[in-house]
């Protein structure tokens, strides 16, 4: 028996393959030819401690062996050594060890013994050693520094057995992991809606309006909810059912009335939007929906939020047309009046290109009972006054505006004032008492302070006053421009 | 119950095709009027399609078109408007394929006739099925008709051949574009009925860019200008509206009484706003009596008459979209009123009390500040030359031409 039990030391170059000693190994005394049986190569880069122990045990499982693949790789990278023992030693070496070194690429490995350490087939040039009691996945060492190019065999060491894969996947099974990713990808979740997953189903990209049209039965019991645009189909557990919404709206209304302690408008707006969203996705359209939208419209008006008001009133119009029970329609006239005033305000707006068709349509749709309703009658008069530029009547009407219409019409006050002042300055010559002008412009002139503020406004428009007592506007010398005062909204 | 004679129709079409009389071909597809339900007997065609006919001619397959036409006629005679409309739609679509595969523009009159029939059928169907007042449902048929007509429009306008305006409509040579204007007019009519005017604008551009509105039959051009005038009116472009409507009126056939009346309904307000009053005879001849009090009021400055007339026919005017324009004519009315006062009192300084008194006499009491406001507006717009004095409550008029006519006419 060959010096089997002698430890063969095999020196390895750091980072390199096996030392090219010509197949000779140091047996402690002398350089001898490496035995035909394979030495287990140590993984590259490892030196000293482990790399030296390399004894061969052809048939037994060795505890000392490293992960076979890693060993195999350096083996693959190793320079193929001369095959076969040198001739001189051939007689000494037992025949079964006489075969060529497994690192020899030229010689076949065919032996009586099952060559565990030989390549699985001719085409491989590294050794596939079975997993000797090595814990699965425990030895993950991968040499990033291997200079030699590895042939991409077996994913370069990446184990693809199902158990290993499953174990790897399990590492990502916590929150924010696999399950959530799968859910979050649009392909996954949308496939269940709008026929996307079906063969021949639509491939339309879904947007917020589509998500809102999906019907859902709500089950959330929490009262408050943060408003978020729908970017995925609505989840039932986040949508509040009708009774919860009713309770919530009642709470909101009470909170709005208690002006001292209530939160700011933006919070109310967000809450209302969430309520509206919940109503939309559950396709609830009844008198409660009307209430919700009316409340939102009113608070938007009070805060001067025209955009929100317009959204709410558009929806209200649709609801009023759809529903016909008395409870839903009890405030319809009020909102018809608001619509009228809204169009009037819009028509005064310079950027508005819509023309008068909306106004005409609205007027046409008024029933005779509606025409006699005080709010609507008032709004019709307002419209007529604006159409004729009858500023006198306009400001009078504005003082007597029913409900919240005043908030709406006050938006057009600056421009009406400007136009009215133009006419005044053009028509009255040589001068006009400015207090009278202020009255015509809708300013209140009760107190001295108000008169003073009014005068400031007139000055900001370029009015020239007479020298004696400043009580008259010299209309001849005045060229009216738009006021450059900051505070333009108030009625004073 | 009468049914249409299918074989008779086949031979009728065959004869027309043989004779190659384009109008005769078109007339084959005229639908009978929808019988009122009282004259139709109880038996109605239970199956949606009767016996199908077949006809091939000129390399085109008329079968399905003719079959559907017969179905539609049957339905019409039986008084079933919606079924008639369905069959008419099927007819229209199958005719599209016939039309596309035909060479040249000899089928254009037939297409026009079919478009017109679709339009009429849609209106009839809507009228018969309108139970609810909801505006969406009651125009469902018309909206379907819109799609069909839009397709007809694209078929005619996308023809690549060059369009020669004066060439007669003949077989193989002409461009299908000859048919565009008429279809555009039909579409205009529908859009106005549906009140979706923004869709009209999409039609304007291609027609104007190819100058199709200046070639072709006079009838089509007049109709086109009429609709364009109405569109301008809607967008407050009064000058352009006046031009278009005047053109339409001038070139309208002298016997087309109804059409001229229609044009005048819109032309009179526009002219009134520009200070031109129609004569009494004109209004009487065309039966435009709703304008009578208004015109009289403006002429004499009679505010009460004017206001009364406006309110009385308010719904009509709102429906037509001319109400706001007529309101603006109130300014002219005021101007004339003050002019009268001036002429009567023969003074250059008119105390506002006088004005107030006259208004009170008219039955419209207005306080002095309001009067000042109205006068300020008139002065600002140049209708009156003069100025106001608030302290003395007097309107001072210029010595020279205090009520310039040019201001009114120019505007």
TrEMBL record, chain A:
GO terms for cellular component: nucleus. Residues 36-180 are annotated as: Disordered. Residues 215-430 form the SAC3/GANP/THP3 conserved domain. Residues 44-59 have a biased composition (Polar residues). It comes from the Eukaryota. Gene3D superfamilies: 1.25.40.990. This is SAC3/GANP/THP3 conserved domain-containing protein. PANTHER family: 80 KDA MCM3-ASSOCIATED PROTEIN, LEUKOCYTE RECEPTOR CLUSTER MEMBER 8. It comes from Seminavis robusta.
Automatic annotation (TrEMBL), chain B:
Gene3D superfamilies: Winged helix-like DNA-binding domain superfamily/Winged helix DNA-binding domain. GO terms for cellular component: transcription export complex 2. One of its GO terms (biological process) is post-transcriptional tethering of RNA polymerase II gene DNA at nuclear periphery. It holds the Pfam family PCI. Residues 222-402 form the PCI domain. One of its GO terms (molecular function) is RNA binding. InterPro entries: Csn12-like (IPR045114), PCI_dom (IPR000717), WH-like_DNA-bd_sf (IPR036388). PANTHER family: PCI DOMAIN-CONTAINING PROTEIN 2, UNCHARACTERIZED PROTEASOME COMPONENT REGION PCI-CONTAINING. This is PCI domain-containing protein 2 homolog. The lineage of its organism: Eukaryota, Sar, Stramenopiles, Ochrophyta, Bacillariophyta.
